[in-house]
Amino acid sequence: QVQLVESGGGLVQAGDSLRLSCAASGRTFSGLTMGWFRQAPGQDRESVAAISKPGASTYYADFVKGRFTISRDNAKNTVYLQMNSLKPEDTAVYYCAADPGPLFSFNWFSKSYAYWGQGTQVTVSS
Fold this sequence. Notes:
Layout: E1 3-7, E2 10-13, E3 18-25, E4 33-39, E5 46-51, E6 58-60, E7 68-73, E8 78-83, E9 92-99, E10 115-116, E11 120-125
Parallel strand pairs: 2-11
Antiparallel strand pairs: 1-3, 3-8, 4-5, 4-9, 5-6, 7-8, 9-10, 9-11
């Protein structure tokens, strides 16, 4: 079992930055593929970014590419999502997810994850 706890959300203005953190416990962190997702009110949950187990490969949804950066610190059992140039449409609950399976470039966006955090709210005002 893996426990995931997100933090770092909040209320910011358009153009501001936030860094989300997700601390993992319960399993060797370096053996987990990590992902960030978001869900806005009335919308489906969508993939935002993913990072491979060693951190060598990262993938981003087109709507955040160039603005968001996913990273991980395997020594701290933590994955991060640095969000810059935030827009009102980035407003959502952000979730981190973990899975022991591999991450492939051809299906990263639809990869399923076994473990999920409780989410952290990000609100961007215009």
